[in-house]
Amino acid sequence: MENTIWAIDPTHSEIGFKVKHMMFTNVSGKFNTFNATIENDADHFESSKISFSADVNSIDTNNGDRDNHLRSADFFDVEKFTTLSFVSTSVKKIDEGTFQINGDLTIKDVTAPVTLNAEYSGLMKDPWGNTKIGLSVDGKINRKDFGLTWNAALETGGVLVGEEIKLSSELQFAK
Fold first, then answer.
1. Which of 69, 79, 167, 168 has the most Cβ atoms closer than 10 angstroms to its Cβ?
2. Which candidate, 142, 36, 49, places its Cα nearest to that of 101?
3. Residues whose CB is less than 8 angstroms from the CB of residue 108 and which lie 6 or more positions away in sequence, other chains included
4. Over the stretch 128-154, which tens digit does the pLDDT of each residue have?
5. CATH number of the domain that 81 lies in?
6. 137: alpha, beta or left, given left = phi > 0 and alpha = psi -120 to 50?
7. Residue 103 domain boundaries
């Protein structure tokens, strides 16, 4: 059986993240420019090979000064490293519609293994006859594992930016 190629529908997808700010609230952000593909036997999501990349310049936390700081050498260093990427190494079925996606995430010049959780909606047709699949993906990474180490101490103890990054994405792919 020939594999199916699925391309991300960026107008119906969102790549988001959250990080603790000042130890007690979350700041949310997203990447506005990204690309992803899935290649699989359409009847078996666990056969998927998933690749993803985001343009780090498109980071958006709804605050221009913060976004510029995130683009600087203190964080993503977009002068040297313009994209972050993910390539799956395996997809494991947990139960009906729930999967674990293992893969390699590259941020800056560091590649490390990550595990993501995915809810797979299965196949559906949109009103124009296009076959689509939907995924909700989440996970956690430690930003320091990828060389994103900048921080500032708070007078009251603790740090300005948390280490744990919560990843959350809503994705739609078209056949």
1. 167
2. 49
3. 76, 77, 80, 81, 146, 147, 148
4. 888 888 999 999 988 788 777 655 554
5. 2.40.128.110
6. beta
7. 4-174
